[in-house]
Every structure is written in C-alpha cells, then in structure tokens.
Specification:
Blueprint lengths: L10 E2 L5 E4 L4 E5 L2 E6 L3 E4 L7 E5 L8 E3 L11 E9 L2 E10 L7 E4 L2 H4 L5 E4 L2 E3 L10 E5 L4 E5 L2 E6 L3 E5 L5 E4 L9 E10 L3 E8 L10 E3 L14 E3 L5 E4 L2 E2 L7 H7 L4
Antiparallel strand pairs: 1-2, 2-5, 3-4, 3-11, 5-6, 6-10, 7-8, 8-9, 9-10, 11-12, 13-16, 14-15, 14-22, 16-17, 17-21, 18-19, 19-20, 20-21, 22-23
Length: about 270
C-alpha cells in the first residue's frame, strides 16, 4: 500500500474514529519476537477513548503469527471487523489484534498493549525509546512547573497537605495536579499499597490509601519515585486526585472536577 504523508491533517471516519499518520518508527514485541516493525504507522482515536492507539500497514506486521480469532468479542473496538489471535512461541493470545471497518483504515491492523489491557504485545518502541501503556498523543502536552502558590488539601475536614512550594503539573485534557513535597503531606494518615500504574508521559506511580474514616476511594494519593525526564520536577513528590479531595489554592476552594477518572475511582471499594 502507498504510505500516507505525515503532512496530512487529522481525519475522521463515518464511524467517528479520528486518525492521522505518524512519522515515528514503531516496533512491537511479544517476549523476544518482533511482531510489528513499522515506519508508516497511523495514530487512531476511538470515540470516547481518551488515549490513542497505533494501526499498522499489513505488510509491516508478522501476519504469519496471526490466526482468525476463534472467540471474537463484540463491541470492543469501534467498527472492528476481524479479530485475530496471536501465536508466539507456542503461546496463543486471543483477540490480540483486529482490523477496523472504516474504509480509511482498510489494510491496517491494530494490537492490544499488555500494560493497558492485560493482553497483547508487551514491549513497544518509538525509535529507540521504549514506551508504555499506550502511544503518546502528539496533540497533548505535559508540563511540570515549580510554583510558590499556597496549596492545601483537606479530607473530611482534616488538612492532609499544606505547601507553598508545590510543583504544578499541567496535562492537556486533565485538571491541574498539585504535587507536594513529602514533608508537607501528613503521610502518617496514609498507608502505602501495592497498587501501581504506568503513564507514557510520566512513568510508573506508586500509591497510598487514606487510613481514616469516610467515603474515600483507595489509592487517592500517588507519587513518582523515578519519573521520566520530561517531568523530572515531580520526582519524589506526592499528588492527590482532585476528583476525590478538597483542594484550596491561594485561598480559593477549587471545584472537584469530573474526568474519566471519576468512573475508575467510584468503581473502587471504599473504606
């Protein structure tokens, strides 16, 4: 197929999918086997999904490792037509890949990312840099900026964090996150958990849970011990979900925002 120009603008399909070409060299592996080696990927945004994924020309995919899915799901991806199982080293990964119904994406195949869905390819690279969880969105910025604002956090009337030296993290499409030096957080009111999440912009986060009473979701406090270089200013600092706590900045109480994290937080068991 003819490679698409990276100069083309963001496009949409009748199914509501947004997509655009990417100029990045992308590789995807399962264990030690390279399944995707693409210099002509496209980024795809499905309706209602806040992060993109990649789709790859068939000729840049190891189709010899794909088998027509024996138990294809329904309603998993927008307009998807054919699902594939992936067989690597004697291991069969069900529904690890699929194609889209959209005419614009005919001839392209997408894959699940293990760190995001628990199945699919487990190592991904853009050029020589490994990336995690999902592709980075070229239309999104993440900036970590030191500040002198006075920021307080309350939970059920208790001040649990108070600082005048926060780092503010601005991430496109999300509320400002306020990162506190550890000594400015009442860590005695929290306990660490074994929960971890990965972010392609920031790295791997560890979490703490509120030890007190009240309707507070677990893992409400987090931090990056070893963040990616782009947000190195938050190293060792701690942040709260604005969606679940009361934050006051320079004397002004902020409204609790509604984001896609609200659903995740409400689905977690409360203490």
């Amino acid at each position: 197929m003819t490679p698409l120009s990276t100069a083309e603008s963001l496009r949409s399909t009748p199914e509501g999918i947004l997509w655009e070409p990417s100029g990045r060299w992308v590789r995807g592996r399962r264990a030690d086997v390279t399944v995707v080696d693409s210099r002509h990927p496209v980024l795809v945004w499905e309706p209602g999904v806040p992060v993109p994924l990649y789709a790859f020309p068939r000729e840049e995919v190891r189709e010899d490792l794909l088998r027509r899915a024996k138990n294809p799901p329904t309603g998993t991806h927008t307009g998807s037509t054919v699902f594939y199982d992936l067989e690597v080293g004697g291991e069969l990964l069900e529904n690890a890949a699929w194609t889209f119904l959209a005419d614009d994406l005919a001839g392209y195949i997408s894959f699940e990312w293990f760190q995001r869905t628990g199945k699919g390819l487990d190592h991904w690279y853009e050029e020589e840099e490994e990336i995690f969880v999902h592709p980075r969105d070229p239309h999104k910025r993440v900036d970590a900026i030191p500040s002198s604002r006075h920021v307080q956090v309350e939970m059920h009337g208790t001040v649990v964090a108070d600082t005048q030296r926060p780092v503010l993290l601005f991430e496109t499409g999300l509320p400002t996150r306020y990162y506190f030096p550890r000594e400015d957080v009442r860590l005695d009111l929290f306990e660490p958990t074994d929960h971890h999440t990965g972010c392609p912009y920031k790295g791997t986060a560890g979490y703490w849970t509120w030890r007190g009473e009240g309707d507070v979701p677990p893992n409400v406090l987090w931090g990056y011990a070893d963040p990616l270089p782009a947000v190195g200013a938050v190293k060792g600092l701690l942040a709260f979900y604005n969606e679940a706590v009361d934050i006051t900045v320079d004397g002004e109480r902020l409204e609790r925002p509604v984001t896609h994290f609200n659903k995740t937080l409400s689905a977690r068991p409360t203490r």
